[in-house]
Amino acid sequence: MLLVQFIDPQGQRRVGMLEQEQIRVIDGYASTYALARAAIAAKTGLAQLASASLGQTSYRFEDIAAAGSLLTPLDHFDDAHCHVTGTGLTHLGSADTRDAMHQKIGGDAAALSDSMQMFRMGVEGGKPPAGQRGVQPEWFYKGDGSIVKASGQLLVMPAFSLDGGEEPEIAGLYVIGDDGQPYRAGYAIGNEFSDHITERQNYLYLAHSKLRACGLGPALLVGELPDHVAGTSRIYDRQGTLRWEKPFLSGEQNMSHTIANLEYHHFKYPLFRRPGDVHIHFFGTATLSFADGVVVAAGDTYEIEAPVFGPALRNTLAVQADTSTAVITL
Question: Which end of the chain is more exposed for a tag (fewer CB within 10 A), N or C?
């Protein structure tokens, strides 16, 4: 099942099920969040409740997308209660990608030992037997709900950014129940979007490089993630000409960690089990245009597509004016 959030032609928030080219509205719920909370309260599955609540109203997906009315697949009415985080070095080949990215400045391989060691730890211990805990992955914070952009919206990078590079990834989307129990609503395709030049200067700048916008959606895949997910990442210039294209792979078959292990090491912290919160957690990638020497420019459009997630995610790069201000002493 694929769920889509959008604004209808009357200006009302809606959530609906995507059936081929149509979004069929789910009656009684204005958001995926409300639907998920109701499913938790009723102790039923999200797919079951959505199916039972389907109405008769439907809209063409392309009409909604063309009107710029798509929303992210899951959000919180208060951005501060939506946590956006991620993990890296989780995919087979991801260490080689990062190695190549860093070595472009001529640094010696010894400087990459921490990354390579963490990747090796994941390969050796990221897929523990059922009931056991595996090694913890790299982890990073991206921001709150205000940074998450729907398909069709601009991805704006700050004026001080040195790069705005795409990262085609799958994200897990979660709602925390009133008892502090995390519930996975499903998965969505995403563009984790980072500043790779800043990261390349020094690996300790990774935290800075991740504090950027990200793209998500347009659809939420309800249920389990396939073991093998194949997709394509593309970049078009402002004239619509294809600049770069490359396939990417995800799903546990192509990862050094299980999804369950990544989830455990995120939600083991009580901070991330606050009742009512939403979490968007990116699972990593091994495919970057930056590693192939691509330099993006304002007006370029990222397109990330994987058939299991339905329609592609598309966002155009823009650069924000300098808004930094000096601190004033009170």
Answer: C
* CA within 13 Å, CB half, 274: 9
The Cα 59–Cα 218 span in angstroms is 15
pTM: 0.93
Cis, bond preceding 226 (omega within 30 deg of 0): no
- What is the rounded CA–CA span in Å between residue 117 and residue 52? 49
What pLDDT digit, counting tens, does each position of 28-66 carry?
999 999 999 999 999 999 999 999 999 999 999 999 999
Identify the burial level of 36 via C-beta atoms within 10 angstroms of its C-beta, where 0-12 means exposed, 13-18 middle and 19 or more buried: buried
pLDDT 10s digits, 233-290: 999 999 999 999 999 999 999 999 999 999 999 999 999 999 999 999 999 998 999 9
* Contacting residues for 4 by C-beta, under 8 A, at least 6 apart: 15, 16, 17, 18, 23, 61, 64, 70, 73, 217, 218, 219, 220
When pLDDT is averaged across residues 115-130 and rounded to a whole number, the result is 85
